[in-house]
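QUALITY CONTROL LOG
STEP: pairwise intake check
CHECKER ROLE: data steward
CRITERIA: each record must contain a sequence immediately followed by its C-alpha cells, with no blank fields

ENTRY 1 OF 2
RESULT FIELD BELOW
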Amino acid sequence: MNIALWMLQALLAATFAAAGLFKLTQPISVLAEKLGNWVHDFAPRVIRVIGGLEVAGAVGLIAPAVLGIAPSLTAVAAAGLVIAMIGAIVVHLRRREFPATGVNVVLVVLAAAVVWGRVGPYSF
C-alpha cells in the first residue's frame, strides 16, 4: 500500500505542479482560453496565488518524506489540496461547468486518499 500511496502522491504532485505553473506563467487571456472563463471572476493576483498554492502543495506531497524532514507535512499538503479542490468544485458548480467539476471531484478524492493513508495506517 505504501508503494501505491507514493505513486498517487507522484501523480498528484505532477498534476498540481503543472496546473500551478501554468497559472503562474501564462497571461490571463491564455488561461481563460485553456481553463475557461472562470478566471475572469477573479483578480489576476488571486489566480497567481492559486497557482502558487498548487505548486507548494505539489512540493509538499513529495519533499518532506523524501528529505525526511517532518514527513507528516505530506498529509498536511494533501489536506490543503483537498481544501483547494473543494473551493474549485464550488466555483465550477456555481458556473454550471460540470466537466470541470468532475475533474476536481476526482482530484479531491485522490488527495483525500493520500491524507487518509498518510495519517492513518501508512503514516511515515
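ENTRY 2 OF 2
RESULT FIELD BELOW
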Amino acid sequence: MNARNGLLGGPTLAVAVVLILMPLALPSSTLATEILIFAMAVLACNLLLGYGGLLSFGQGLFFGAGSYVAALTMMHAHFSLLGALLAAMCCGAVIAAFVGAMAIRRVGIYFVMMTLAFSQTGYFLAYTLSDWTGGDNGLLNVPRPPLALFGVTLADLNGGMAYYTFVAVLFLLVFIAARRVIASPFGSTLIAIRENETRAYAVGYDARRFKMLAFALSGAVTSLAGGLYAMQLHFVPLENIQMAMSEHIVIMTVIGGTGSLFGSLLGAGSWVILADLLSSIWPRWMILMGGGLIAVVLFLRGGLWSGLEALMQRLCTKKRAPAQTDAITPDDTAAPGKGEQE
C-alpha cells in the first residue's frame, strides 16, 4: 500500500489492530513483546535494504550497542527509562553514521563485507571489555525502571502486560515516523538512488549523504530495539552483538518482505513464533527454518507481505466479479445435421 495515502489510515490502522490482538492471541505477553522488539529492528533494516537497496550485516552491531548503552547508563549513571533509551538511540545513530560513511565508499559485495567487518569488530570489543560488558557471561541485573517524566512516575513497567503496552506504543510511533520518512522527499530520493544511483547523481543528489542519513536512522531505531530487549530480559547476552543477530534481522526482513513496513511485523512475528514452537519440538529446528526461508525466496519473492497482498487482491476480485453462467442450448450440443455436414 502507498505510504502517502494517510499516515493514520490504512497500514497504520492495521498495525494498531494487530497490536491490540497480539497479547490476546499469543500464549504470553512476553512473546508478543519480543515480536515487537524484533519487528522494530526489522523495520530499521527495511529502511536500508528495502528502500535504500543497502544490504547491511551491521545491524547486530547497532542492536548490541543499544543494549549495552541502555543497560550501562541505567546501572552506572542512573539514567531514567526514557533517558537510557534516548542515549541508546543517539549512540546507535552515531555508530551507524560512522559505519555508513566508511561502507558506502564501496559497492556490491565489498560494501557487504565492510558492514560485516564492523559488526565483527564490535563483537570482539564487547568480548574483550568484559569489565563493562560481562564478556561471554553477559551483563547481568539490568534494571527496568518505571516510566517517569520530569520526576513524575507515570507507570510501573515490571508487569509483562504493562511493558508490552509501553513497547507497543513505541512501535506504533516508530511505524508512523517511518511511513512519514518514506513518504517524504527524503524517502523518494532514497528510492530513486536505489533504482539508479548514477541518474540520481546526474540530477544533483548527493547519494552518499542520503545513504549515510539512512544508516543513521536505521542505527537509531535498531539501538532503540536493543535497549528495549535488554530491559525485557534484565540481561544483555553477548549474542546481542554477534554476527548471528545481524543474520537473523536480515532473514526476518526478507521473510516479511523488503520494501514493506507492515512486512517487518510479519517477518519478525513468523520468525519468533516458529522459533518458539520448533525449538521445543526438535533441537535442530534451524534446519526447518532454513527450509522455510528457501521456500519464501523461491515462491514468495516479495516475502509474506506480497503473498498476503496477492491473496487479498484475489479475494477482492472474486467478490467484485459478477456471477457468470454459460447458457448452453440443446442445439449447441446436438450433432450437426446433414446439411451442415455437407
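INTAKE CHECK: passed for both entries
DESCRIPTIVE NOTE, ENTRY 2: The two ends are 60 Å apart (CA to CA).
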